[in-house]
Amino acid sequence: MLREMNDRAAIDALLRVGPSTRSELEYAIGLSKPATAQLLARLETEGVVVKAGVRGGGRGPRAQLWTVNGGLAHVAAVDLTPHVADFVVADITGAILAEHRVQLPVHAGADVVGSFGTALDRVVKAAGLQRADLRHVVIGAQGACDPRTGHIGSAPHIPGWLGFDVPTRLSTELNIEVTIENDVNLVAIEEMTEGRAVDLRDFVLVWLSEGVGGAVVVGRRLLRGATGGGGEIDWMRVPDPASVKTEDGITRSGARFGEIVDSPAIVRLAKAHGVPGETGWDAVATARETGADGFLDDLARRVAGGVASVVSVVDPEVVLLCGDVSRAGGEVFAEHVAVRLHELVLPRTPVGLASVQGNAVRAGALQSALATVREDVFGLVSATTSSLLGSRRTAEGSPGAAVAIPSSRTAPQSPGITD
Fold this sequence. Notes:
Helix content is about 40%, strand content about 20%. It has helices spanning about 1-15, 20-30, 35-45, 110-125, 165-175, 185-195, 255-260, 265-270, 280-290, 295-315, 325-340, 360-380, 385-390, and strands spanning about 20, 50-55, 65-70, 75-80, 85-90, 95-100, 135-140, 145, 150-155, 180, 205-210, 210-220, 220, 235-240, 255, 320, 350-355, 405, 415-419. The chain starts with a helix and ends with a strand.
């Protein structure tokens, strides 16, 4: 048992920091020089670790580097949107082997499973692998996957993926374990792994871009709910507190939250304030540049009106804004949201910007896939794995345990949080 614990500690350290010398690993896991040497020799014999060149510098012989054998397992991660599917294949260390972007048919009646499998085969081939070499696939989608049925809900933009048990069908026909996860939940996973939420236990993530989404994390675990709809704030009906009327006819009696803070709604609100912009993020960026605080404040009122209900129930450590609109608004917009939020709720919850950059949905999907496979192969339970516990279900007739999980989107670098 002690040997297994030491082995896991060494593997975990190598996965976290990358190739290391024996002395560096000795320091990281707290073993003696002979014990660390024996551990490395044993893991090399078992094929778990391999030599990774040498590290020079200083006097004396160059030190041998060791790393986890990436070929032990491979995973794929996908950001699925109505416009494009962004694929990546990586080995168990997280090293990216191939990437592929392709527009997949998502309309009703489309062969979504067949087209997905074809695209997956293409990126797998580019990685020098075969489909059978993949241990796990995680797909981020703009909707919520019901863990009881495997059906995706709240996703009218991808009608071809609706009405059937998605993870079970994919797992069975592709002969790979497949997970479907809500895209904003994957952003939250990436934020917990690499971003501002590394040391947070409770936070709310709000995605503002072409559409709107949310994720709620309590005790380092994603709050998905009984049907996978946890964090689906898009469909929540809220009053519209904006000070001006817009041409969409929405009155103060309210509308669906997504209808008053998505990109088209933001453009209409900006127009009512005399601020130009073809997209929501264009309008917000223009408002920042021109000092159109009236528009930013009205938009902040709308955002705060939807976020307040979640904050009142969860009382998180922070609300993190992410997505194109949030990036365009920056700290100035976060401050506006904080002011309006604190008028509506008792907690003085700070509002800040998520820090993960690039395609955070795909990155979160990759983190999720790696966490699952590393637990299966090495017995390592990471913070990410912990957030996924309780969400896996064995799909009848599938080749393995298919995961049905419910929102990672591109987020800006933020130097601080606005109280």
